[in-house]
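Hi all, posting the design record for the shared folder.

TITLE: backbone redesign
STEP: 1 of 1
STRUCTURE INPUT:
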């Protein structure tokens, strides 16, 4: 038998011992996730769970699925805000920035650290851990046409 040392697995430093020790679960079947827009809090929690699970699914049509979620649950104001930030990053030479995650991609290691906390009526703070960085996004919701919409997105850096 060949006695040369072989690499068994690689652990990115920023994820510590968390990475590679167990199977990542919770986002295999995004079709079973439903978005509840009956209250601002339920909208933010359920939207982010599905939005991040969609990132984690790494499907071939990821960008179109994310866009569909944004079109279905962001108000016109929030969509314009999203597009403006996306365009600013494109002009700086950076493609793919997503204001809803304050990043260019979502590492599924952060899926289980997702939290949505009410700050005041119709305002919520969404947080998730990505490696050693804590991402914070402030979300404002608005009630219109019998349901809640994400109306403003502010990434905290």
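Okay, here is what came back for every position:
SEQUENCE:
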């Amino acid at each position: 038998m060949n006695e040369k040392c072989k690499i068994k697995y690689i652990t990115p430093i920023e994820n510590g011992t968390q990475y590679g020790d167990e199977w990542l679960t919770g986002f295999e079947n995004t079709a079973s996730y439903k978005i509840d827009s009956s209250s601002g809090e339920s909208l933010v929690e359920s939207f982010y769970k599905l939005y991040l699970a969609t990132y984690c699914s790494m499907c071939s049509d990821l960008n179109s699925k994310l866009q569909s979620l944004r079109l279905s649950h962001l108000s016109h104001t929030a969509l314009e805000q999203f597009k403006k930030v996306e365009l600013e990053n494109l002009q700086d030479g950076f493609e793919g920035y997503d204001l809803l995650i304050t990043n260019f991609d979502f590492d599924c290691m952060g899926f289980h650290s997702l939290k949505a906390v009410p700050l005041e009526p119709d305002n919520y703070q969404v947080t998730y851990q990505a490696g050693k960085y804590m991402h914070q996004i402030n979300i404002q919701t608005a009630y219109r046409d019998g349901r809640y919409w994400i109306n403003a997105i502010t990434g905290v850096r």
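COMMENT: The chain has a mean pLDDT of 86.
Let me know if anyone wants the other runs.
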